[in-house]
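Support request from a user on the community tier.

User writes: "When I paste my structure tokens into the form, the page sometimes reloads and wipes my input. The last time it worked, I copied everything first. Here is what I submitted, just in case something in the input itself triggers the reload:"
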């Protein structure tokens, strides 16, 4: 349980950093925060969907789908930026 809280705190910290850097995507730090959140959502979607296949929980399917949708939106934003 402590590891889950630690990972949640890390995710929250990354989210706060990305919110603070959202208007500075022309700088390295802002772009790194956006890439970090995009990668997190891709990895979270994969992990949750694999867990859903193993366990079959509806909550895992929903969480995986949500993270997958956010990852697609990040990918679209990165592609539109170029």
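"...and here is what came back when it finally went through:"
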């Amino acid at each position: 349980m402590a590891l889950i809280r630690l990972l949640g705190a890390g995710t929250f910290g990354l989210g706060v950093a990305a919110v603070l850097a959202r208007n500075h995507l022309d700088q390295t730090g802002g772009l790194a925060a956006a890439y970090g959140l995009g990668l997190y959502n891709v990895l979270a979607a994969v992990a949750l969907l694999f867990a859903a296949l193993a366990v079959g929980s509806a909550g895992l399917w929903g969480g995986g789908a949500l993270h997958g949708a956010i990852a697609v939106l990040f990918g679209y934003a990165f592609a539109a930026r170029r």
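Agent notes: The reload is a front-end session timeout and is unrelated to the input. The longest helix spans residues 28-55. The two ends are 41 Å apart (CA to CA). Escalated to web team.
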